[in-house]
Amino acid sequence: MRRVRVPARLKRVTLPARPSTLLPRTRRARRRTVQAVMLGTVLALAPATWTHAVADGRLRTTADVPARDVAVVFGAGLWKGRPTPYLAHRLDTAAELYRAGKVKVVLVTGDNSRVEYDEPDAMRAYLTERGVPDGRIVSDYAGFDTWDSCVRAKKIFGVDRAVLVTQDFHIKRAVALCAAAGIDSYGVKVVEPHDSVFYYGGVRELVAAGKAAMDAALRPDPHFLGEREEGVTEALASAG
Q1: Is the pTM of this model over 0.90?
Q2: Which of 24, 56, 185, 214 is the most buried (most CB within 10 A)?
């Protein structure tokens, strides 16, 4: 068998330089890095901690929530013009509160920024199908987010006390923001199966809590404020 000679230039293998570590080299620098990470974590979780603290003792069920004149139901999207399952469950809970005599009027607040997209009217239709009289439903067409809905409920519709209806991952933020807007509220949480949508909502709340804390601190006007509306007052008067 013929012997193959390896050229000398191939015998020398140059190993790549060892990459420098990304961690600080000194103990003091490592300690500062850990402290910075801990501080960042605390700051990131602070808004969520605030919403939990404000809502503490304010969460109830449909059976034990104190009676209030008004229930506020927050929009949660439409599918082919009808409420999504999450929104439908909120409306089911509001209808249950009305039938139990816990509330007299339901304020539905959602997005109607486009002609072809009308959350409040879809919410109204759903409630009337479940026995809530049309005259006991008031629509807020500019509830583009939770802060806007709370501020408009207070400033536009004159709501001072309310029962808030939304999913359990959202209810604490809703109670905290309505408190910042000047509404004395209790929250009734709608319990959902822990599916992918639920977990997405929970993760989203960590980000939304940061915006909520800024809204509560800065108290900006909603996207649309407008003139005072008497819908809630008139609906309560008709309720007797």
Answers
A1: no
A2: 185
